[in-house]
Here is the input.
Amino acid sequence: MELIVISPETIIQDEANVICMLLEAGVQRYHIRKPNTLPEHIFTLMDKIPSDYHHLISLHYYTQLLESFPEIGLHISGNLNTHDRNKVLERASVKSASCHTFKECVDLDNKIDYSFLSPVYSSISKDGYCPKYTQSEFQTFLSQPRKSKIIALGGVEASNKSIVKAMGFDGIAIMGYLWKNSSLNLKVLESRCKSLLV
Here is the structure.
């Protein structure tokens, strides 16, 4: 199963090195999702990351940075209208989106490389954000043929990764499990990632 990491919402100390360490530890993709950060700060962060890693990074929100970093992927959210969404997707090498219903996944199938379907479990990073589907409903939906991968997001951790795999997800994305109570300790971050890769 693929492992994708979603960044903390704010810039963290030495983030470029943290990103490189996580990718070297086995994380397949890193999503930079910082909704309240200025584009120039994201540019500075990307500029510090060696270009060899750019093809493993996706950006949320800052589509204009694709001109400076053409190898990055782009992640779209529900607030883009269809015309803008299609325009953005044409330019990206790797395309992904956030989905919260099965219908959203079906609508985007074959238009993107993968979607995050959330929440699968109660979210670790967002209080009160609970799943709308049962494990059996996830399993039934995920057993149907599809072209785009579907990645589990929300409440996924080492203790439930085997259940997530059995449901039929193509991978997992983590945010709260990785960053919460980590004190940004590199050994803790690496250990948490490796617990999901085993």
